[in-house]
Amino acid sequence: MVTNDYVTIANEKMEDEFIKRHHKHDVKEHQCSSSLVKHIKAHVPAVWSLVRRFDQPQEYKPFVSRCIVQGDVRIGSVREVNVKSGLPATTSTERLELLDDDKHIFGMKIVGGDHRLKNYSSIVTVHPEVIDGRPGTLVIESFVVDVPDGNTEDETCYFVEALIKCNLKSLADVSERLAVQVWAESIDRM
């Protein structure tokens, strides 16, 4: 399933190609998977600077209150995330699986915590695009997760998609504010 906003036919083909190329999940029985797309009116470097920060997800993820990573951030690093109240969890332990600064690909897997997202992994890719004649960014986030006992596949996907949509909306807001700030600073230097 692909959930999308601001879709045009030309963009759909490009998005589908990126999903086929980068968002491959081995979906097993009793799991659900989905891909979500967000178009952001900010340059790729601004968006990627937030997405790649495994040690600071709270910079744009509204449900994260604190994050601790021991040592340097590299593939295999583990972070302990504290979740804000209001969600059915307080902590999540997550491992960095993929971080490619050239191709703008980020992957992580949840390896523990007091929540029901078992065998959860996600991939986020960041791609340049043009929005309203200006440089913008296409962000695609996909995931796979076990369907917990007592829940349906649809319920599980709906819950995870709602969290990701909030994160992507916040990513867009923070990135676009950052882009305006950088633009204003460049004007001031003239």
UniProtKB/TrEMBL annotation:
Q: Where in the cell is it found?
A: Cytoplasm; Nucleus
Q: Example GO molecular function term?
A: protein phosphatase inhibitor activity
Upper lineage: Eukaryota, Viridiplantae, Streptophyta, Embryophyta, Tracheophyta
For this UniProt entry, which segments traverse the membrane? none
Q: Which GO terms describe its biological process?
A: abscisic acid-activated signaling pathway
What PANTHER family does the record point to?
A: ABSCISIC ACID RECEPTOR PYL9-LIKE (PTHR31213:SF175), OS08G0374000 PROTEIN-RELATED (PTHR31213)
The entry's family comment says:
Belongs to the PYR/PYL/RCAR abscisic acid intracellular receptor family.
**Source organism of the structure:** Salix koriyanagi
Print the keywords alphabetically.
Answer: Abscisic acid signaling pathway, Cytoplasm, Disulfide bond, Nucleus, Protein phosphatase inhibitor, Receptor
Per the record, a Pfam family?
Polyketide_cyc2
Can you name this protein? ABSCISIC ACID RECEPTOR PYL3-LIKE
Q: Which domain of life is it from?
A: Eukaryota
Q: Which Gene3D superfamilies match?
A: 3.30.530.20
Query: An example Gene Ontology cellular component term from the record?
Result: nucleus
Q: Any keyword Zinc? A: no
